[in-house]
Design brief:
Number of strands: 20
Strand content: 25-35%
Structural class: alpha+beta
Bound molecules: adenosine-5'-triphosphate
InterPro entries: AAA+_ATPase, ABC_SmlMolc_Importer, ABC_transporter-like_ATP-bd, ABC_transporter-like_CS, Mo/tungstate-bd_C_term_dom, P-loop_NTPase, Transp-assoc_OB_typ2
Protein name: ABC transporter ATP-binding protein
GO molecular function: ATP binding; ATP hydrolysis activity; transmembrane transporter activity
CATH superfamily of the largest domain: P-loop containing nucleotide triphosphate hydrolases
Number of domains: 2
Radius of gyration: 25 Å
Organism: Roseobacter litoralis (strain ATCC 49566 / DSM 6996 / JCM 21268 / NBRC 15278 / OCh 149)
GO biological process, one term: quaternary ammonium group transport
CATH architecture of the largest domain: 3-Layer(aba) Sandwich
Helix content: 25-40%
CATH class of the largest domain: Alpha Beta
């Protein structure tokens, strides 16, 4: 099997003085895939990306790209290109020369580099602006020049550090589609660092969720969103409520849990649990009904409405319950406006146990 563009991170760590920015990371990113790294500010995403790019050296561990150990290899030799968040275009060079710059460094003759730069500008639909200077471009156009400049060296792996963060919402969504199309066309590996959950879910074949320098979960977007590993992932990815309780009864794969206040829930579990064990599970916000009178014995939680936000396709209703976090329900917009709620209303939320995910992690 070809390993082109495959990235293997073997027991990678990175410390700055006494501070460990990246803990022990073991991960394989398949060649030709689109991988998004996400996590809160300071969790080590950029440091990991910079180690893959060769801008930082790991304190320990190995990095393999395309089957080659590149851990100590120089930036330009490892088949990667890094696109910076601020695009880092040369202000005094026109677009064609910006894009051709790294070919010049590599000693490519002028006619060949100009031809390749024009091809790359055409790929990002900017060939007609080749003679413009960076200050004459919009944010989206600057972003595309930066992409063309990163791709001109024909990398196996393109590394993107928050590539869309400087763009307004409309352009972000447009460029998101273009990034995915470009990756499909080129068939090379993209690793994209983002702060935005919908961006990661929409783009990635694999989402890597980090926290405090380690990988908490690395999986297909649907798994990360619908089957989160831990309460942290469930909260961070959004879309889920976390409920905690203790096991009151079990028959192996199915348990009954009891929460503070006596509410009971039945749910499938992913490992054996004993009576009295603490348990956390996630309930999808969009799979919960709000009713005035409980229609079932289990899987209901009483609450008081503390917040209502209209979101267009749904209405986000926040409840104060016996659980620590605000318990959030995404109500269908039409159903909501048939029976609107107001802050202070006492309601019952209920769901079916097949919309629940047993959380294995403890943090
Ligand atoms: P953000 O989303 O805010 O960009 P991040 O997840 O990309 O954050 P990193 O930039 O990787 O986080 O930083 C991880 C941690 O390492 C942070 O606490 C940061 O302050 C620290 N750090 C990064 N580079 C250095 C450095 N050169 N010297 C010392 N500490 C550093």
């Amino acid at each position: 099997m070809s390993k082109t563009g495959e990235i293997v991170l073997e027991k990678i760590t990175k410390s700055f003085g006494n501070f460990q920015a990246v803990g022990t990371v073991d991960q394989v990113i398949e060649g030709g895939s689109y991988c998004c790294m996400i996590g809160p500010s300071g969790c080590g995403k950029s440091t990991l990306l910079r180690m893959i790019a060769g801008h930082e050296t790991p304190t320990s561990g190995r990095i393999l790209i395309g089957g080659n150990d590149v851990t100590t290899m120089r930036t330009g030799e490892r088949g990667t290109a890094l696109m910076f968040q601020d695009y880092a275009l040369f202000p005094h060079l026109n677009l064609k020369d910006n894009v051709a710059f790294s070919l010049k460094i590599h000693g490519v003759a002028k006619p060949a580099r100009q031809e390749q730069a024009m091809e790359m500008l055409a790929r990002v639909e900017l060939a007609n602006l080749a003679d413009r200077m960076p200050f004459e471009l919009s944010g989206g156009q600057r972003q595309r020049v930066a992409l063309a400049r990163a791709l001109i060296t024909n990398p196996q792996v393109l590394l993107l550090d928050e590539p869309l963060s400087a763009l307004d919402e409309f352009l972000r969504l447009k460029m998101r589609v273009e990034l995915k199309r470009l990756q499909d066309d080129l068939g090379i590996t993209f690793i994209h660092v983002t702060h935005t959950q919908p961006e990661a879910i929409a783009l990635a074949d694999k989402v890597i969720v980090m926290d405090h320098g380690i990988i908490e979960q690395a999986d297909h977007p649907r798994a990360v969103y619908d089957q989160p590993y831990s309460p942290y992932i469930a909260r961070f990815m959004g879309g889920q409520n976390v409920v905690t309780g203790t096991i009151a009864a079990t028959n192996g794969s199915q348990v009954v849990a009891e929460a503070e206040g006596g509410a009971r829930f039945d749910l499938p579990v992913k490992r054996d649990m004993a009576i009295g064990d603490p348990i956390s599970f996630a309930v999808r916000r969009d799979k919960i009904r709000i009713v005035s009178k409980a229609e079932q014995d289990m899987n209901t939680l009483q609450g008081e409405v503390i917040n209502v936000e209209y979101q267009g396709t749904f209405v986000k209703v926040g409840l104060n319950t016996t659980q620590d976090d605000e318990f959030i329900v995404y109500m269908d917009d039409r159903a909501y406006f048939d029976n609107p709620l107001k802050v202070g209303d006492a309601v019952i939320s209920e769901w079916s146990s097949d919309n629940v995910c047993h959380l294995l992690g403890t943090n």
